[in-house]
Amino acid sequence: MAHRYYDLLSLTVLTALEVFEASARHLSLELAASELNLTSGEISQQIKVIEDALGVPLFVRRGTGVVLTSAGQDLYTELASIFSKASDVVTTIKHSGRSRMSRLPPPMHSRRSG
Fold first, then answer.
1. Domain parsing of the chain, residue ranges
2. Helix, strand, coil tally for the chain in percent (to 5)
């Protein structure tokens, strides 16, 4: 059985990390739902996917809001940094991509003999 290069769980969990990050940033499932155009129920389901995969709670629900657990704070701190860096790279590529592409040589075509 092949093992993944990075221990990042399944794609389902990776997708749910965006939901977690927004929920943690807002400390509100409702605000995260509004930002991501999802229902609060869908937000809760995605967070449950991550919590089940990790085996620890990430939030404690208090009244109408949520508070991060220690594990949730650790995950949020890293995700916020990673997402910010990834966003910076994407922005740089978008703004410099055209000028870089115009300097590339034309693609080489293979010639088949025979």
1. 11-87
2. 65, 5, 30
